[in-house]
Amino acid sequence: MKQTKLIGVTLLLCSVLDFVSQDEMLTPLGRLDKYISSENIFNRQMVARSLLDTLRAISEDERECVSVLERIDRLADDSEPTVRAELMEQIPHIAIFCQENRPSIPFAFSKYLLPIVVRYLSDQNNLVRKTSQAALLVLLEQELMERGDVESLVCPVLVDLTAPDSSDDVKTEAMAIICKVAPMVGRDVTERLFLPRFCEMCCDCRMFHVRKVCAANFGDMCGVVGGEAAEELLVGSAPGDAGQAVTKDLLIQIKLCAGLMLMLCSQVRQAAFQSLGQFISTFAGPCSNTEEGGGEQTAEVLSADEPCCADADAQKCLPEETQPSSRPPVQEIPEQELFNSFHYWRTPVPRIAPELELELELELELEDRRPSAPALDRKQLQELIENLEPHIDDPDVKAQVDVLTAALRATGLDSGLEDAFLEPRAARSNPFSSQQPSQHHSIPSCTALTTLSHDAVLQDVVPQALLEQYLSMTDPSRAQTVDMEIARHCAFSLPGVALTLGRQNWHCLRDTYETLASDMQWKVRRTLAFSIHELALILGDQLTAAHLVPIFNSFLKDLDEVRIGVLKHLYDFLKLLHQDTRRKYLYQLQEFLVTDNSRNWRFRSELAEQLVLLLELYSAQDVHDYLRPLALCLCTDRVSSVRWTSYRLVSEIIRKLSSCSSLLVSFLGELVEKFCHSQKWSGRQAFAFVCQLSIEEECLSLDQFSEHLLPPLLQLASDPVPNVRVLLAKTLRQTLLERGVSTTLHTLVALQTDVDKDVKYFASVHPGSTRLNEDAMSTTSSTY
């Protein structure tokens, strides 16, 4: 029996070896042909996975490459979904290969691969569809598809998948992929092919999942096409007279409120509220950038009559007015930063010349006088009302039914009854505006039609209904009925909304901001803390001092999770304050040394980095009196990363004090006493670090260094700890000797005969690529 089994195993092994040897005899194309028609599903999956390797093996032969691509098309017809999904996972990799070898196999992607991707987008199997969608996004991100192919082949398929006869799952998937593809294909394609269907899906009361996707991506879609195109389609069929502002603005509010914010399904309302602030920001005008937002008070140059120290060298301590700042003033924001993702969620609107603005105002005034035309089908309004009426017990739904009912009546009004429905613009003029009220009429806010809990806050930048819905996000009932995180979403988007409204409309947001700043959830307060400097930039120094400084002060005393937000942007906020207000914070900086958790070393590291920036905001005397003690304390931190950042801070303090000899001498003497003469070897090593950094960064002159720091530095040559002598050797050999400080030669000769081989090496050889940062990395691990 055992012999029989042994013979069987031997025969099986021989057959396997024969099988392997047969495969080795085949060409790559031959192996592909052998397994592509195998009845074993696993073999066909392996064929899909090996396609890229096969192409690489025959890349020199154009005809064989084409043969492989033809077999890919054959494999794409496989009846097994797992094989098709495996093939689709390989398509992006194969496409990249084809792109790299384009001269030898031109049109490979568009002829052989793209049709498979397009076909699989509507595959019956969910796994295959999902894989093809992921592959499509990769191909677009890598710019492997021609724009014409995307427009003519891909986009129509995606739109067809959202047709009424498609299943709900397919519609939801297709709409999600459309929203992701839209930013990649740009405004023109999105506006022509995607936007009509997107707006249709937004208002389809029967498909909750599709509406949820639309609501979540509403702001992004409007950001792609711009506000005007979105507005025209969101009001349904464009009116016969597209310039009629009254009807369009009214219906924008109705559509946005009814179609998104107060849908019956809580998930849709949740997604809509999450993107509401982002959508409001797309109403930003052409002048809504940070220059309009203010921030006039930058890092001011100290006045010449303010002494920085009380000795005869006082005048030398004042910074020169021509001294360049380490950070550019607010007015000199780089062009690429003017339109970053914080400022806009859409393509920036170009500036309009003053004379063109006047022409546009006259043109709009004429358009407002043109006869009105219905912009929304009455039947659509009636359907919305009928769908909402069964849920009339919900206060939000009841309010919306009132809005829709009023809108239904409004569609039947002719121009003769218009005055009875409209209120004069003067009645809602901005109390902060210096302009005279215009004589033409405008629409009332939705507060004239509904009973919302918030008082009407007047402005004319965004539809009032949108703003009121946004302000309602701080209502405690919203957290219970919509989303427990709704307040945090409100806080996250508030700077963008403030930028859109402009500082003249800050009164609209002030109460909401103060409510959020005192929210019981620390995550809400943390969100505000991380963005308070951006809001200060928008509001300018006067509003910041009046309304933001008290909140900033409360954040300073909050939990560490909140304090880290203001700490990370401490310089950005303080530089916007008036000099007198800014100086008051000198007394509070030491509070950052105390944390809820002493192991939170990153908090202290961030403090050291911010102190480096703060040096330019204060006089040399203030730096010596208030920032110097903090720096010395951080230099003795038990975490090496904090200490290393602090050494840089100390070197920058030396630079700041270098113009005032009395303060400089006092500080350098303190460094020698505390560090060079320290009982701990890490302190003596820190002294060598600071000396090296001060010279390499030119924080003080060689004469000043030679007089005050070099003698105690050379004394470290006899230090008992090798790590200290190693750093000393590096500093003398690589930093001082290069700059012609010949007094170090005697000490270097002595270090070249040191008992430690590393000390001898760095005292004798000058590694060409070794700089301060490499030195630090080679020693900080031993100083933790």
UniProtKB/TrEMBL annotation:
The keyword Repeat is annotated on this UniProt entry: yes
Keyword Signal recorded: yes
A cellular component annotation (GO) from this entry: cytoplasm
Gene3D superfamilies reported for this sequence: Leucine-rich Repeat Variant
Keywords: Repeat, Signal
N-terminal signal peptide: 1-22
GO molecular function: protein phosphatase regulator activity
SUPFAM superfamilies: ARM repeat
Residue stretches of each HEAT repeat: 154-193, 709-747
Coiled-coil zones: none
Name listed for the protein in its UniProt record: Protein phosphatase 4, regulatory subunit 1
Biological source species: Cyprinus carpio (Common carp)
